[in-house]
């Protein structure tokens, strides 16, 4: 049917006819969300993580070539607006029934749905179920008649009527708390955003009052003052803005936490910044190194980091083959660091989890030789590591050292079928250069 619409010529239509058609097209497009919700909910209810090869939203992102954020949004939309079933198999109505019905007949679109969901995100949890139901019905009715930004105003008014004193509880605040470290921009900078609880704010305030004071932790100083009180001279020299001082103060606080050694171990190595670079880059002091968190660090920063005694830095010559042997079944610190240079992150196809958050998997499970050769180890994130069990997914090493992921025969379908089973996410240079994936 879509093929017919796309192939059609609209040259001969009058303006009123075209407008009628545009309206019809909008309605029909909106209605298509309904079968999508239904299909997603059915897959979520009936299929297992083994079948998707990980999380449902990740599998959807791979299958449809949409971002993981967009895929997660579709799963959440389906949960709120699609038909569901109880564990007993009984059909349940959608969580937002009036909104779902209006979307199903094409009278409201994604913009309206977003406004109504946002209304519920900001509603205190003490509002009773019956009132919530009435509010949802009311908003869905208005959404049929108005544009999303108009419905937004109505929703704000309704929020005020239901909660005129702005009473929020710890539960409401806890639900909203978040800290988002955005992706790295082309110049290496990252946006930090989020919502702090009053307690987190009070804590941050006092840390910044100390470390972000004029003259403190000033990178322009020969020896930045990190404890004690800065003298008049240091304060006078300090030309940073208040926001820049906040940034430097936070960095100093985090560095002190790392240097305290109180964080202990994380995934088998001391909590520390792991940086991978080559001898060549280090000698020329140019280019970018990568961290175990999957980010890029200019060499000038690497060298500055190395000057802090409390960090330790692992540098590898990529040209030199590295083999580490250990008699213990548990991968040693050195082997984990080597995996940071080789795998950089989870090796499951399409997975974006960086090295810091990965577990070490033994590719050859026949542990007859009792050695933990690093060539036999690979990084896997928690959810992918769990797929690797007897009768489930398996891994094997390719000649070039890449790890290949293989589903069990009865699960060889879906988004991964016929696609490369290695992960290029942490190695974008492989997609650009000579090492094409076979
Ligand atoms: Zn993974």
Could you walk me through the main structural features you see in this protein, from its secondary elements to its overall organization?
Mean pLDDT is 84; it is low at 309-313, 319-329 and 434-438. The chain is globular and about 70 Å long. With 438 residues, it is mainly α. It has helices at residues 2-7, 15-31, 33-46, 49-52, 56-64, 68-81, 97-104, 110-122, 129-145, 148-162, 170-176, 198-211, 232-237, 242-259, 279-284, 299-306, 333-342, 382-385, 428-432, and strands at 84-85, 91-92, 178-184, 190-195, 265-266, 269-270, 275-276, 288-291, 296-298, 358-362, 377-381, 394-397, 403-406. The structure holds zinc ion.
Terminal Cα separation, in Å? Answer: 37 Å
- In DSSP terms (H or I, runs of 4 or more residues), the helix count works out at 19
Helix- and strand-based class?
mainly alpha
User: Share of helix among residues?
Assistant: 40-55%
- As residue ranges, the low-confidence spans are 309-313, 319-329, 434-438
| Outline type | globular
**Small-molecule binders:** zinc ion
Q: How can the largest sheet be summarized?
A: 3 strands, antiparallel
How much is the radius of gyration in Å? Answer: 27 Å
Adjacency order of strands in the biggest sheet: 7-8-9
Q: Strand fraction band?
A: 5-15%
Q: Based on DSSP secondary structure assignment, what is the total number of beta strands?
A: 13
Mean pLDDT: 84
Protein traits:
13 strands; binds zinc ion; mainly alpha; 45% helix; 438 residues; globular; two-stranded antiparallel ribbon; three-stranded antiparallel sheet
């Amino acid at each position: 049917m879509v093929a017919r619409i796309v192939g059609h010529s609209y040259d001969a239509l009058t303006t009123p006819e075209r407008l009628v058609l545009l309206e019809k097209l909008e309605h029909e497009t909106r209605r298509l969300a309904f079968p999508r919700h239904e299909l997603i909910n059915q897959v979520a209810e009936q299929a297992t993580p083994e079948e998707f090869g990980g999380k449902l939203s990740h599998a959807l992102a791979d299958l449809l070539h949409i971002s993981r954020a967009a895929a997660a949004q579709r799963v959440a939309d389906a949960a709120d607006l699609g038909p569901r079933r109880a564990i007993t198999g009984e059909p349940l109505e959608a969580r937002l029934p009036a909104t779902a019905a209006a979307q199903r007949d094409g009278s409201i679109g994604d913009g309206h749905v977003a406004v109504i969901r946002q209304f519920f995100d900001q509603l205190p949890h003490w509002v009773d179920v019956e009132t919530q139901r009435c509010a949802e019905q009311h908003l869905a009715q208005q959404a049929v008649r108005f544009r999303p930004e108009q419905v937004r105003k109505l929703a704000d008014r309704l929020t005020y009527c239901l909660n005129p004193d702005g009473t929020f509880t710890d539960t409401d605040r806890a639900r909203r708390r978040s800290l988002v470290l955005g992706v790295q921009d082309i110049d290496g900078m990252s946006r930090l955003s989020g919502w702090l609880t009053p307690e987190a704010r009070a804590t941050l305030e006092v840390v910044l009052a100390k470390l972000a004071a004029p003259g403190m932790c000033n990178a322009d100083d020969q020896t930045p003052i990190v404890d004690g009180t800065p003298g008049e001279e240091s304060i006078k020299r300090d030309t940073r803005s208040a926001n820049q001082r906040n940034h430097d103060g936070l960095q100093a606080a985090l560095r002190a936490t790392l240097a305290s050694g109180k964080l202990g171990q994380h995934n088998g190595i001391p909590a520390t910044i792991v940086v991978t670079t080559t001898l060549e880059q280090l000698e020329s002091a140019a280019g970018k190194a990568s961290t175990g968190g999957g980010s890029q660090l200019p060499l000038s920063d690497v060298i500055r980091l190395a000057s802090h005694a409390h960090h330790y830095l692992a540098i590898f010559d990529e040209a030199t083959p590295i083999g580490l042997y250990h008699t213990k079944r548990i991968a040693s610190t050195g082997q984990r660091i080597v995996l940071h240079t080789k795998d950089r992150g989870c090796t499951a196809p399409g997975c974006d989890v960086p090295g810091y958050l990965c577990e070490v998997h033994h590719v050859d499970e026949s542990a007859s030789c009792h050695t933990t050769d690093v060539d036999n180890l690979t990084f896997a994130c928690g959810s992918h590591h769990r797929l690797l069990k007897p009768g489930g997914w398996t891994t094997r090493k390719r000649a070039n050292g890449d790890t290949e992921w293989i589903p069990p025969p009865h699960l060889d379908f879906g988004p991964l079928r016929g696609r490369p089973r290695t992960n290029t996410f942490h190695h974008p240079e492989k997609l650009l250069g000579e090492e094409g994936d076979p």
